[in-house]
Specification:
Elements: H1 3-21, H2 28-36, H3 74-79, H4 89-92, H5 94-117, H6 119-145, H7 151-159, H8 163-201, H9 204-222, H10 244-252, H11 257-263, E1 277-278, E2 282-288, H12 295-299, H13 302-309, E3 316-320, E4 328-334, E5 360-364, E6 370-373, E7 380-383, H14 390-402, E8 408-413, H15 421-424, E9 430-433, H16 437-463, H17 476-479, E10 489-494, H18 497-500, H19 506-519, E11 525-531
Parallel strand pairs: 7-11, 8-9, 8-10, 10-11
Antiparallel strand pairs: 1-2, 2-4, 3-4, 5-6
Helix pairs in contact: 6-9, 7-8, 10-13, 16-19
Length: 543
């Protein structure tokens, strides 16, 4: 069968199939060419050529990635970039600047006082070591005159029997010795004469100064290397500088698969969007973690990170960056562990006033930065194990509240040790201390008073005109009007689990405190609770 007969046979088969099934035979070669070709080949214009089969729109190739990068322009990227501060944060913060200046003055005063007290000892030590220093100076001078430093080279040339090199070195030595000998002779002649003239003609202060200078020089020269004359007033602790290599080593020790993949062969490594710099009493490193790794993954393994950095756990503080993606981590490594750093003085300890409507100083974070809290419109729950500082933490906001002339304090300390007696007995409207039924009953009465006052406060606020109370809540201006009785009302209960778990009073106290938490925020009522058992508190949000 020839090719013409084959073509005729295939044409007849195509016609029979089209007649039987009502369709058309697809040319596979043309379809494959259309799929593998450029996107433009799938357009209707390209398929309108005579003899070509039209390709439906569903068969067109859709390009996912754009052929050229798109996004923000240069100016948009510049405007959106984060500008690093010109002045360091500690210079703009008054507490941090005062702390740094105080440390510098204290360090200088300590060093000056340390050495001033030991000045007589230094002088006596230098005087005793001056003869040894003079002998060392004389021996050094003779070695210099005789060119003793070149003697090993001449001996080596003699051992190699290198006559030419030996003669050259000998002539060089002769020239040096001749010149240096002349200088020594002149010094021996001029020196005693000058010393005698100074002894006769110079004033007493110049003789004393010269003698002291020579004694100091010879004494310093005669001091052994392992026994210096002047000891160090402050022995600095050597802290290893934080580098990218150390950070990568520490992250690689966490056992995270994605981090290991990034640090392995062919990986893209760990990226640092900013240089590692000093930040207060420590080092700061901004890190872009590998894809899929979040800061939470690092926080869960902070102890292993500290081991990789070879630093105490109290020195290593990773934290997320709020304005960045979940993989951006700020790693701060302190010079000293947190429990080794003396706490700074409370800013309001020596005087001043406070307002519960404004941020109040509460403490410092691990980097020494001030931490403030705003009590108004919030409630506070402090929960911790026994002996971990719950009462101290509760005392700080109470002291700040006591400095607000508008605040009314109701304090109940159910441990019975009188830890809050200095506040309760002097500035509190209600105060009780004890773990007995009588104190719990009195605390419940105080809670009932606060709960009852909620209704009165709500009625007063609803009756005020909108120009005085536009947000229908207590404001500093409204609280200052004493006739309204909308002053801040602070109810504090230490060891509140004793009250909430009481068989007779616990259920009612929990229900009333829950209502106070729900309604008291806008009415100027603040609830402060401290407990060893957070599960005993009212099951409502405290914020």
């Amino acid at each position: 069968m020839n090719h013409e007969d084959e073509n005729e046979l295939f044409n007849r088969l195509e016609a029979d199939i089209a007649a039987d099934f009502g369709g058309e035979v697809l040319d596979l070669d043309k379809a494959r060419a259309a799929r593998s070709g450029p996107p433009d080949s799938a357009t209707p214009e390209a398929n309108d050529e005579p003899g070509s089969d039209p390709i439906e729109a569903d068969d067109a190739v859709a390009m996912v990635d754009a052929p050229a990068p798109t996004g923000q322009g240069l100016m948009d990227r510049i405007r959106g970039a984060n500008r690093r501060p010109v002045v360091s944060a500690w210079l703009k913060s008054k507490p941090e600047f005062v702390d740094a200046a105080g440390w510098l003055l204290g360090h200088t005063a300590h060093a000056v006082g340390y050495h001033a007290l030991r000045t007589p000892y230094y002088a006596a030590s230098l005087a005793l070591r001056a003869p040894a220093g003079a002998a060392k100076f004389t021996a050094g001078t003779l070695r210099w005159v005789t060119d003793a430093e070149g003697d090993p080279l001449r001996r080596a040339a003699a051992r190699r029997e290198n006559a030419e090199e030996y003669l050259r070195l000998s002539r060089q030595r002769d020239g040096r010795v001749r010149l240096r000998g002349i200088l020594l002779a002149l010094a021996c002649v001029v020196g005693p004469v000058a010393a005698l003239a100074m002894w006769i003609l110079a004033p007493a202060w110049l003789l004393a100064t010269t003698t002291a200078a020579l004694t100091f020089a010879f004494g310093w020269l005669g001091a052994p290397a392992d026994k210096p004359v002047i000891s160090r007033a402050v022995v600095a602790t050597q802290v290893e500088r934080l580098t990218s290599v150390i950070v990568e080593r520490a992250l690689g020790a966490l056992g995270n698969a994605e981090i290991n993949k990034a640090l392995g062969k062919g990986g893209e490594g760990i990226k640092f969007p900013a240089p590692i710099t000093r930040d207060g009493p420590g080092w700061r490193a901004d890190i872009d973690l590998p894809y899929g790794v979040t800061v939470t993954d690092i926080l869960d393994r902070r102890d292993r990170l500290a081991s990789g950095l070879r630093r105490p756990l109290g020195c290593v503080w990773p934290e997320p960056v709020p304005d960045e993606h979940a993989g951006r981590m700020m790693l701060w490594v302190g010079d000293k562990a947190l429990n080794k750093v003396p706490p700074p003085a409370w800013p309001l300890a020596k005087g001043g006033t406070a307002s519960l409507f404004k941020p109040l100083p509460f403490g410092t974070d691990q980097r020494g930065r001030p931490v403030t809290i705003t009590l108004m419109y919030d409630n506070v729950l402090i929960g911790a194990m026994p002996g971990m500082g719950k009462t101290f933490s509760l005392r700080t906001p109470l002291l700040a509240a006591a400095l607000d002339v508008l605040a009314e304090l109701l304090i109940w300390e159910l441990k019975g040790t009188g830890d809050l007696s200095a506040l309760g007995e002097t500035v509190a409207a209600d105060y009780g201390s004890g773990a007995n039924d009588e104190t719990c009953a009195a605390a419940l009465e105080s809670i009932r008073y606060v709960y009852k006052d909620l209704e009165r406060r709500a009625q007063v606020i609803s009756s005020l005109p909108k120009d005085k109370c536009p947000e229908n809540k207590v404001t500093p201006e409204v609280a200052a009007i004493r006739s309204l009785g909308l002053h801040p009302l602070v109810l504090a209960i230490d060891e509140c689990q004793e009250l909430f778990s009481h068989e007779q009073y616990g259920k009612e106290a929990g229900a009333l405190c829950t209502s106070i938490i729900k309604r008291g925020r806008a009415l100027g009522v603040i609830l402060l609770l401290a407990t060893q058992r957070p599960g005993q508190r009212p099951r409502e949000s405290l914020r």
